[in-house]
Design brief:
Layout: E1 5-7, H1 14-31, E2 37-38, E3 49-54, H2 60-68, E4 78-85, E5 88-95, H3 98-113, E6 116-117, E7 122-123, E8 137-140, E9 146-151, H4 164-176, E10 181-185, H5 249-252, H6 257-277, E11 281-286, H7 293-297, E12 304-309, E13 312-317, H8 322-338, E14 344-348, H9 352-356, H10 369-382, E15 387-391, H11 397-406, E16 412-413, H12 456-468, E17 473-478, H13 485-494, H14 502-514, H15 516-532, H16 541-544, E18 554-555, E19 560-561, H17 568-586, H18 591-629, H19 636-661, H20 667-694, E20 725-726, E21 731-736, E22 744-751, E23 758-761, E24 763-766, E25 769-774, E26 780-787, E27 793-806
Parallel strand pairs: 1-2, 1-3, 3-5, 9-10, 9-17, 10-11, 11-14, 14-15, 15-16, 20-27
Antiparallel strand pairs: 4-5, 4-8, 6-7, 12-13, 18-19, 21-25, 22-23, 22-26, 24-25, 26-27
Length: 815
């Protein structure tokens, strides 16, 4: 009797078995057919076989290579091919190495089954695709050896709010996107933004003197955040959170500074361990010249130097001092002991240098070869397998020529593209010989970090330049996830295919998400908007490079809400873009496709409301400015005008926040919602109201902000971190059903191979957050339902059931 199956070697590594389990569950979703996983001993038995092998493995890889003449290129390359033998059809996935086989499994799912793997979401057809492709012959190899992401700590929309499940989900999605490098930069001091202290992942002591270190939460006041209780969030959005503080558990649950540092280090250690298990290279780094104030205060006078920055004078570590050498060794020792799995350590020129170069008379801390050579020599002694990477903001490019001449060739050079990414890949990368060099383009601009962003044409230029300059890697900096799916996925794909045309990718992306007809219309709109830069929030190098730059529309690193003038023609053009998305949405009959398109349409609607709030706030600011300049209070007529503008402002802010909240799906989205409450609502509404009260004699006539919840909202339930792997204890499911009419949330699951459906009630954690366990020792499909007080279903997630594999993942050892 024949049986269709997936074949891997009996000796396959956990990494390869994980890919096989993913292949199993995604094929079950896309085709409706569940394939058991078998070993190579069953190869000659009848049935259709999906063979996942590695060239030279002495097993299934060599067997299919010999049968079909498959020739993957390099260890990360793969060759996909369908052929037939006496036992039946074979779908071959052959990797030049283990990595190539893993990447090939996901490439097969995308190329032959219509799946789409992105940073914050995925697309899987619901059981309608034929099990066997009619024809298949695809051979690929990456064009860049190092292909990575740099999720940036500091903002609540980024990894500062991640728990271990978030890290694991991002790692898994990176692997599916063909990426192989994950790096983190850790702040130890933040003079550029007055961020008041260090992040805890690399906390250290000097002669017994430690320092405070925190992860940002809704109760910290760095980066322009105004601490606020969750219960004080506007428009009922407090129900999306549990408790009074939002942030990573490592920060929220910590019992003081020492516990916070220990928890954060354990969290990142477990995350990096998982990334290594999934085949990623991992890297952690810091700014050696930026050390915590507490440590600076403990330095002898001869080890300090006074510097002048745009924000004033400051004491800093003198890198030429004996203490600087000792501190460098202490920091490297701590990093290697805490994260023994790291493949690379990058040392960053201090962030001040990116901005002080624009201010005459301001001093830039040195970033000289002698100090970097000390770090290199020490790493060679302590951890010879760990690579040193020289990095920094865009201003560091001016030093690369001299550093290249002075430093060993096995040190990699890597830097952020200058001016928040508005500068293209620097041509210095073409003058670095055979040295590894990894430019870092910005997948999103932090000066418009509440807005959707369309940068494929920018990345196309950056990647082509990097390829032409001989770069062997690129790394993308980012915070958010789903809202930049198109940017991140194009970037990842272009590191395999540098010539990938943005318009072609937009067509592929939009078609996968929304279907052929709606996708074509959406893709045309996306490409036109991207190519022409006709969207509020786009900025270029000329606008950013000036000393008096206004910091963008929604700069998370500062006060954020900035009522910049938006040209009328840009407003009209963006409205036309929104109308085309509405037309595409109207053409979408498929429920999952409609949800995907509606998510991105809501981001556009947010910007439209945001622009209206900017216009209203600007009009109020102009009224007040005239009165202040003339040293008078607002007149009665001006107060009437201000009252009308306040009403416009309040309506626009409410529309922006409620609209955004109505489609949220990710942890990053929750971080943006928290930021909107702390920054946008406060600075747009309360600051304008309070300012007008100070400048009118008729303050009682001004309407106060109404921050109460809307009377009605469509009930919905979603899981920000969907479980994908079930260990021996199962997987935690944490769902959000924020509508107050939701009285219960149920979790449902059934075996992918067929069997009895099971149901378990989730328990209310706090607010609208519900939690429970998904327990199974076999792969399952699962979904959630929200029930009203009468026990009737009021919402369901996801539209098509999700799946999870029974994969052994050891529980974290950290706190």
């Amino acid at each position: 009797m024949s049986e269709n199956r997936i074949i891997v070697a009996a000796s396959a590594s956990a990494r390869l078995r994980h890919a096989a389990a993913d292949l199993q569950r995604y094929l079950a979703q896309a085709t409706g057919t569940f394939l058991p996983i078998a070993n190579d001993a069953t190869f000659a038995e009848p049935g259709a076989r999906f063979v996942l092998g590695v060239l030279g493995d002495g097993g299934p890889g060599d067997r299919i290579a010999a049968r079909a003449g498959l020739r993957p290129q390099g260890p990360e390359g793969y060759h996909l091919h369908r052929f037939d033998d006496d036992a039946g059809p074979v779908v071959a996935i052959l990797g030049g190495g283990e990595a190539g086989a893993v990447y090939g499994a996901y490439a097969l799912l995308e190329a032959a089954y219509g799946c789409g793997f992105f940073l914050g979401s995925e697309v899987v057809p619901p059981g309608t695709i034929p099990l066997l492709p009619a024809a298949l012959d695809l051979r690929r190899a990456p064009s860049f050896a190092t292909r990575g992401l740099l999720p940036w700590y500091d903002f609540l929309s980024g990894p500062s709010a991640w728990n271990l499940a978030d890290y694991r989900l991002i790692v898994d999605r990176m692997v599916r996107m063909g990426l192989n490098f994950l790096g983190f930069h850790v702040y130890s001091k933040g003079p550029v933004t007055r961020s008041q202290g260090a992040e805890p992942f690399l906390s250290f002591t000097y002669h017994g003197i430690g320092h405070d270190a925190v992860l940002d939460t809704t109760q910290t006041n760095r980066w322009g955040y105004l601490p606020k209780r969750i219960s004080d969030f506007a428009y009922g959005t407090d129900r999306f959170f549990a408790g009074e503080v939002f942030g990573a558990d490592a920060a929220v649950l910590a019992a003081g500074p020492l516990d916070a540092a220990a928890r954060a280090k354990a969290l990142l250690r477990d995350a990096l361990t998982y990334a290594k298990e999934r085949g990623l290279r991992v890297c952690v780094g810091f700014e050696p010249a930026a050390i915590p104030d507490e440590i600076v205060d403990a330095l002898p006078t001869g080890a300090r130097r006074r510097i002048q920055t745009p924000l004033g004078s400051d004491d800093a570590l003198d890198l030429d001092s004996v203490a600087a050498r000792e501190i460098l060794h202490l920091r490297l020792d701590d990093l290697l002991a805490t994260y023994p799995m790291v493949d690379a350590v990058w040392l960053w020129q201090n962030e001040d240098a990116a901005w002080t170069v624009r201010h005459e008379g301001d001093e830039v801390l040195p970033f000289d070869a002698s100090y970097l050579r000390l770090a290199y020599d020490y790493l060679k002694e302590r951890a010879p397998r760990v690579q040193l990477v020289v990095s920094g903001w865009g201003a560091v490019h001016q030093h690369f020529g001299d550093l290249h001449a002075a430093l060993p060739d096995d040190i990699a050079f890597s830097a952020l593209n200058h001016y928040l990414g508005s500068s293209q890949t620097d041509d210095v990368y073409g003058r670095l010989g055979a040295r590894s060099r990894w430019p870092i383009p910005w997948l999103e601009d932090d000066a418009t970090l509440w807005h959707p962003q369309y940068h494929l044409h920018r990345f196309h230029n950056d990647v082509l330049r990097a390829h032409r300059f001989g770069c062997d890697g690129m790394i993308g900096i980012h915070w958010r996830t789903r809202v930049i799916d198109h940017n991140a996925a194009y970037f990842a794909r272009s590191l395999w295919e540098p010539d990938l045309d943005p318009a072609d990718y937009y067509r592929d992306y939009a078609t996968r998400l929304a279907g052929a007809d709606a996708g074509r219309l959406w893709a045309e709109a996306l490409d036109e908007t991207d190519r022409s830069h006709r969207w509020p929030g786009w900025f270029d190098e000329d606008s950013v490079a000036i000393p008096g730059w206004d910091h963008g529309h929604s700069n998370e690193a500062t006060d954020c809400f900035n009522p910049l003038p938006i040209p009328d023609d840009l407003v009209r053009g963006f409205a036309a873009f929104a109308a085309r998305l509405d037309e595409a949405l109207a053409m979408t009959a498929d429920a999952p496709a409609a949800e995907r398109l509606a998510y991105h349409r809501a981001q556009v609607a947010f910007v439209q409301d945001y622009v209206r709030s900017q216009q209203a706030a600007r009009a109020i600011d102009d009224l007040v400015a005239r009165a202040v300049a003339e040293r008078r209070r607002l007149s009665a007529a001006e107060t009437d005008g201000a009252r009308a503008r306040l009403s416009d402002l309040y309506a626009a802010v409410r529309g922006a926040v409620e609209g955004f909240a109505s489609v949220m799906t990710t942890t990053a989205d929750l971080g943006v919602l928290a930021s909107l409450n702390q920054k946008y609502v406060t600075r747009a509404c309360w600051h304008r109201y309070d300012t007008l009260c100070e400048h009118t004699a008729e303050a009682e006539q001004l309407p106060r902000p109404d921050l109460t919840a809307a009377a009605e909202a469509a009930p919905r339930v979603f899981v920000p971190v969907p479980p994908e792997a079930l260990d021996d204890g199962g997987a935690v499911v944490e769902a959000i059903a924020a509508d107050p009419t939701v009285a219960a949330v149920s979790l449902h699951w059934s075996p992918l191979a067929g069997g009895t459906e099971q149901t378990a009630a989730l328990m209310r954690k706090a607010g609208g957050v519900w939690t429970g366990m998904l327990r199974s020792d076999v792969p399952v499909r699962y979904w959630l339902t929200a029930l009203d007080g009468m026990g009737r279903e009021s919402a369901r997630w996801p539209v098509a059931p999700a799946t999870a594999s029974a994969i052994r993942i050891d529980r974290p050892s950290g706190l």
